[in-house]
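Q: I have 477 residues here and want to know how they pack in 3D. Can you give me a structure?
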Amino acid sequence: MAGETEQGSRYRQIAEQIKQAIHSGSLPPDSRLPSVRTLATQYSVSMTTALKTLRTLEDEHYAVARPKSGFFVAPRPVNKTFPTLINEQAREVAPLDEQTELHLAMLGSDCRVRLDLANGDLSLYPVKKIGLLMRQMGYSKPALLGNTVKGTGYAPLKNEIARRAVDYGCNINADDILITNGCIEAISLALRATTRPGDIVAVESPCYFVLLQMLHNLNLRVIEVEAGPEGYVNVEKLTSLFQRKAVQAYLTINNINNPLGKSIPNEQKAYIARQADENDVVIIEDDIFGDTAFGERRPFPMRAFSPNAILCSGFSKTVAPGIRIGWVHSSNYMRKIASLKYTTSMGTSVLSQAAIAELLRSGGYDAHLRKLRRELKNQIQHMRQAVLRYFPPGTRVSDPEGGYVLWVEMPIGALNVRALFLKARNAGIGIAPGHIFATDHRYDHCFRLNAGFGWNAEVEQAIQQLAQWCQLSITQG
């Protein structure tokens, strides 16, 4: 009896997910719905449950059955208003289920072909230069190692960060910068300083999975605002939330977002910032990928358009993944952020800060960035063209403006990405499955690829193998 009840609720859950895809436009009118066999495989349910799902959609006028052809999305009636989208409602980020927890744990583990992370091979970074600077400064300034780590960070580094910020439209006081153990700690401190358990935070969707789990750990609720066709957040829906006082904060990677790789245009950033200020919404921005932008000019952060925005960044995506030096700037919350930092991790390694400060001061960082951007752009283009060449018709792939990653979207219902993830792992190929980038199953047909480890024959073979598995999944469906 318990099994029957579970299956009974399962068909309803699947039907609601398909309705959501219809409401959002991902499944337009007259598009083919997944077959009974595909649904059963994708969601690990019986053929009976899969058929009941499609019949339910038909009974509720979301689907029509066509003899010998299958089920299709019903034409949208004129003047019919669809219910409010599920993803416009505040929801708690659920605890990780066993499978998702396994996937996240495996993402950081070693594998033969590293397509899962969002960083690159050591050859991309000035690790020898940083190592030399740390040895020299450790020898010439032993106090950098011997003194107690205290305060808000190494003053010369904070001054260099403030100086560089002018180039991307931000007039920042170095006294309002705090150095952290990576950008993730900066974001966590900013959230803790500005929100309380139960508050609602708007995020872009798809959303970087670490941010989603951070919100869960802080007992915050989220509203996921899906990206528009341009690849960045739907500005109208986002600012509507501000105007309705529906959220207390907006957590954003607005420059080279993760995983789509797009930046919000300056005009839209200015509008979002203005609406946030007028409606007392705190903007917390993760700008960790801003320096990797491929364009001639680095994109402006939201902080350039509002002095109230909290700006978080760091050097792990540009200097080296192992350099866990981040920073946070706030004009309004620095005292509280500094207090939280002291009682959380107290301080940050000064020697690493000093080495980065010297790299910035000498101009070595700018020279390195020019090379890094060229290499990343080249590697992204190689991988993107390979996906378009090898993957089945109907596959969509993002066109990033910077960063390391590509977002691959298969036709809805054509792929069980959780099964693909495990199959790829068993073959030594790492990918980031799409379901970890949302609070529900809306990206079960998507996955993220990392191009940061270069383009070579082994990587190309891995892309071909993924494409073959995806084609097989479609054929069997």
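Q: Anything worth noting?
A: The longest strand covers residues 200-205. The CA atoms of residues 193 and 337 lie 6 Å apart.
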